[in-house]
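Ectoine hydroxylase-related dioxygenase (Phytanoyl-CoA dioxygenase family)
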Amino acid sequence: MTVDAHATADLPKPTADHDQARADLREHGYCVLAGVLDADEIDTLRGSVLRIAERERDSGTHWSSNGNQKSFMLINHGREFLDLVENPVALDFSAALLGPDLLLSSITANTARPGNVQQQLHADQQYVPEPWPYVSSMNVVWALDDFTEENGATVVVPGSHRQGTAPRPDAGPLVPITGPAGSAVVLDGRVWHAAGANRTESELRVAILSHYCAPFIRQQENIFRSIDPDLRRRLTPSQRRLFGYDIWSGLGVVNGLPRDWAHRKDRSGPTNADGIFPE
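Predicted structure tokens:
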């Protein structure tokens, strides 16, 4: 069930004002940042997603659920996706709640096809034991088409991030998150939401989900095993840190801590103990 327009008057709307968007995120558990991607970026990303999806259907390796097609581990498929996960707006908004050492948890494309059904209501950090007094993950949903109620825009229970639990059977009314292509929809990992039902006859709704998590959380995608070896060798230091190759507070060591860290109080930083990165 969705709510009428009068009831949504005070809910987040697409905005280019980052202060307003931050206030929306705190109060409602989500915000809509308009105009983050320009027309060329939208065209490049959307075209790439559709080509990947077509190849996967042709090869029989596609993954579909509820009438939506998902394509995983997009960083293996082009420079444009590497740039997207390092988008400064996405990192800035996510780091505000997760801290500066956040990790990329996954990057996935979702194409909502006509005739699909609404996804099950969920929160992105449902793997964290309840209660949730603080956020452990964030999702940045990149709208590569206009998000409308008719084409399956993400639906949300505003303010549900303050419940500190997974969705309950008596969850409140669902509100569609609408906005123009190029918007970044930022979701607190605790907020209850779902991909909506695409009720159009022929209109695809294409989106990319950049999921980030706190540095002590296991990532959704096992990037170390999934990444193309040639890409791994070309990663920049900032990408290695974002993908989880660095040590953080003594976590993620490789055959123990580096010997020259023995007297350091800060047990965080890059390591190449296994020699997998070019010197």
